[in-house]
Amino acid sequence: MKKYVALVTAACLALCLCSCGNNAVNDEHNGNADNDGKIVVTMMYGTDLLPSFESLVESTYPDIDMQIEINAEATIDGESERRLRNGHGTDIVTTTMPAEYVKDFVLDLSAEPFAGKYESSMIQSAMIDGKTCFIPLPGQYYGYIYNKTFLEQNGWKVPESVSELIELMDKAAAANVGKGEDGALFGMNNAALVRSSYFIGTQIPDFLGLSDGVIWSRDLLENNASFSDKMQDCLDNDMKMVEKGYFSLSGLSDKGNELPIEQRMLDGTLLITYSDMHEFNRLCELGDKYEYEMLPFLSDKGNQSWIIAQPDAYLAINSELSKPENADKLDACLRIFDLLSTVEGQTAVINDTGAEHSYLAEEVPHSDRIPDGLTDCIDKGMIYNIRIPSKLFRYFGSKMASALNGEVDVKDALAQVDDYYINGNEEIEYDQTLVGVAAEDMLYENFNTRTGETAIGNFVADAMREVVGADFVFANGGAIRGSLYEGNIFGSDLDTICPYDNKLAILETDAATIRLMLENGISGMVQDSGIPAGRFLNVSGLCYSFKKPAEDGSAELLSVTLPDGSPLDENKKYTIVVTTYMAGEDGYLNNNGDGFTMLNVFSSDVPLSESVKLVSKTDYTYADALKHYVDMHNSEPISAKTEGRIKVVE
């Protein structure tokens, strides 16, 4: 028998599936059988092609041809949504984020015998309107990953409480071990799932894992409790780390600079990060200098430690298979689910995916890959599966990050979470909604949008150019403050990339003024603070090159051309897009306007530009342009790469 597993309340993150028709049988095949007379069952998965499980299915059921399409793990949800919306859903629907939106696309499995073979609490967490729609695949454990080598070299004790964790950071800080130039010893990825699960996870040992927390969790689902009731001190320990400078906020902030967490763990400039077993195994594989270990969530009151587990994915059956003509294919899918719901089926998937935790009620032997630091929790069954309502889960994590950054008081942040849960909010609802999918990472890190060409800078500039319309677009690097990661794009991600509310203006000007703009843009790349100035210009519609700045901060503009290499026409007027801030709406005193006085069409601080004409002032912000662009391209993955628009000459 498995040991008792306690659970945090409500449903996982949402996969936003629009309510339009789909046709499972017409995606790659017409009809239910292939040329050999076998029943073709299609599925998409985000890792290797599940060879062990596929082989098990086809050897157990010789009449089934299971065809699993590989896709990037991070894009599974967005790609599934996109296909279903466009009428090309697979027979077995795969998602990491089940939600109520899927009910029009998947079948009710409540009456199927295999639905009763899983931990009842996990099945309940994925229910929609009281119906079993999903079964969970084996999943990953989450916890703290720390540099084991540093602890062993310095004779430091492995922490057993939050106080000891902070004491460890005190020792590391004093010894200048496991920290970078920013002084940070602890950080995490800014992905919504990661930061939200962290803030929930810290509450498990001393609240959510206790009877009072279980009752609160149940009442929250029934709208009889609120976050303000019990979570007032939820950030106390994190605040201590912030005050000491140990917690890297830049990776969490909507206006911060993305921290390269993995690289810093590998090069020894970060002592601890929060992530899952996938990242732990990756660090162990890539690292040749340090060893790593994991810790569960720790108590500061003598309570048992806990870890979080999340399924690698959930599986459902496409509702199109309920049609009479698809009866054979439906039967095949049910048999596959029945086989998956056995120890043999679970073991095959674990062998394929490297997952560590099965949700089958029957005991499934786990692998020998479990870190020593997590085994005690696993042996005692101290494992949580997050069940907070999907959009609420994301919003809670976002508000806690804002509170930790000092952007809002914890009390007010919790009140805002409660208000959203009880009353709803259209703007917040959009923020938590899946709006698109990114084909690859577009990273903002180390202030890279202020020193050269980046994929994220090109994405922002291209989106502005397509939505607003102009010959050229100039996006100042200081306005870009976030990354776009491969996979799901939520509404809030677009605000994170460009959080400021400066409006866009369309101007008409000449080639000489454009060169002056670019010269100003490269003029502040070397600062006393070590942080490049935000005036650096990301572009769309033209290319430029410059000589790398000397120690005194000076840089030399070398060329400005059209994308085909031809020069600008000295006698032509070009339309350009900039922010009203650059064009002088806030004036140019106290460094306002970033020195773009050659564009002045608004301010009386300096003479109006004789070479620039205001065509129109739009109501768009950078984020607005991104939202419109993603909406216009929601039938295809969003993509942007570096392509030689900006060249830096040594």
Topology, element by element:
Elements: E1 39-45, H1 51-60, E2 64-70, H2 76-85, E3 92-95, H3 120-125, E4 135-136, E5 139-147, H4 148-154, H5 162-175, E6 186-188, H6 192-201, H7 204-208, H8 211-221, H9 227-230, H10 236-243, H11 261-267, E7 272-276, H12 277-286, E8 292-295, E9 307-311, E10 314-317, H13 327-340, H14 343-353, H15 372-380, E11 383-384, H16 390-404, H17 410-423, H18 426-431, E12 434-438, H19 455-468, E13 472-476, E14 487-490, H20 491-497, E15 503-509, H21 511-521, E16 537-540, E17 543-547, E18 556-561, E19 574-579, E20 613-621, H22 622-632, E21 646-649
Parallel strand pairs: 1-2, 6-7, 9-11, 13-19, 17-21
Antiparallel strand pairs: 3-10, 4-10, 5-7, 5-8, 5-9, 12-14, 13-16, 15-19, 15-20, 17-18
Helix pairs in contact: 1-14, 6-16, 16-17, 19-22, 20-22
Can you describe this structure?
Residues 1-31 have low confidence and may be disordered. The chain folds into 3 domains: 24-138 and 312-384, D-Maltodextrin-Binding Protein, domain 2 (3-Layer(aba) Sandwich); 141-307 and 390-425, 3-Layer(aba) Sandwich (D-Maltodextrin-Binding Protein, domain 2), CATH 3.40.190.10; 434-649, 5'-Nucleotidase, C-terminal domain (5'-nucleotidase,  domain 2). Helix 6 crosses helix 16, helix 19 packs across helix 22 and helix 20 (491-497) packs across helix 22. The strands form 6 sheets. Strands 5, 6, 7, 8, 9 and 11 form a 6-stranded mixed β-sheet that branches. The chain is of the alpha/beta class and 650 residues long. Strand 17 (543-547) and strand 18 form a beta hairpin. Helix content is 33%, strand content 16%.
